[in-house]
Amino acid sequence: MPYYKYKENIPSYDFADFKKACKKNNRDNIFLPPNVLADADKYFNLRSKKQILDFIQNNGLENQIFENTKPWENNPNKNKPIMVDAYEFETWGRRGYIAFMYNDKTNKWIIKSFHLSNNWNKAMYFAFDKLGIFNKLEEKNE
Q: Is residue 111 situated within a structural domain?
């Protein structure tokens, strides 16, 4: 997997490559830790690795927005950074958050986080935008 030069505002991975790995014939190359499985069940009613990856593959991460990329904090080899990309998305009227990385050594994608977004400013923005409030404010100011 290609790494881009580290910049917090540019993804380290092509999201299409991650999504491709979620296809049924590639799923052995994706690891989901127990906390990710528990959060996906709790917040999105996705109860298994299969359901989560089907959800991602079938465009369940609607209106996704790249949030940032950061070095993996628990990387045992500090000389070879592994970057973690984070995105916010919408689904079922909720604002979600997903973070993932690719480990060249194991040739596996790892979903680090999959839960509701903690960024309420963006959540409010999307809620207002969906309601057309910004358009109404613009019309009022004209």
A: yes
Q: Is the pTM of this model over 0.85?
A: no
Per-residue model confidence (pLDDT) at position 22: 93
Cβ atoms of residues 52 and 35 within 8 Å = no
| Angle at alpha carbon of residue 11, lines to 40 and 101, rounded to 5° | 45
Number of domains within the chain: 1
> What's the DSSP call for residue 101?
E
Does some domain include residue 7? Answer: no
- pLDDT of residue 104 exceeding 50, the answer is yes
Residue-number span of the structural domain to which 118 is assigned: 15-141
In a domain, 108, yes or no: yes
Full DSSP string of 47-71: -SHHHHHHHHHTT-SEEEEEEEEEE
- Positive or negative, the Cα torsion across 129, 132, 135, 136? negative
Rounded to 5 degrees, φ, ψ at 95 are -100, 120
Does 133 map to a domain? Answer: yes
Q: Which residue has the higher pLDDT, 75 or 129?
A: 75
SS3 at position 24: helix
Residue with tokens 């989560």: 52
